[in-house]
Task: inverse folding
């Protein structure tokens, strides 16, 4: 019984902990760049990201690269590589620099 109660409490704590509340600039860079890339696709709702890596350039700038699979205009699934830099600006803002989709 104690074991079950411990598992339930632990699960509740883990579920209630929202990841966005954790200050992780690499995670924020990944999520914001994925959203930006998604908005530049023909069919954004079909986007699936793989092999995404985030490298710190300095304390406010990160390089993000990876692959995105998404449907093209003909409905065929295609893979594109992407690469860009994201710069965080004070006040919860950011700037995407030089997005490359190839």
Result:
């Amino acid at each position: 019984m104690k074991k079950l109660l411990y598992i339930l409490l632990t699960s509740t704590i883990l579920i209630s902990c929202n990841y966005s509340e954790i200050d992780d600039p690499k995670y924020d860079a990944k999520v914001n760049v994925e959203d930006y890339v998604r908005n530049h696709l023909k069919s954004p709702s079909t986007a699936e990201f793989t092999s995404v890596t985030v490298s710190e350039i300095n304390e406010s700038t990160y390089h993000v690269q990876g692959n995105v699979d998404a449907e093209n205009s003909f409905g065929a699934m295609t893979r594109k590589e992407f690469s860009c830099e994201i710069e965080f600006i004070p006040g919860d803002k950011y700037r995407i620099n030089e997005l490359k989709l190839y």
Summary: The two ends are 56 Å apart (CA to CA). The beta strands are 48-58, 61-71, 77-89, 93-101. The first strand starts at residue 48 and ends at 58.
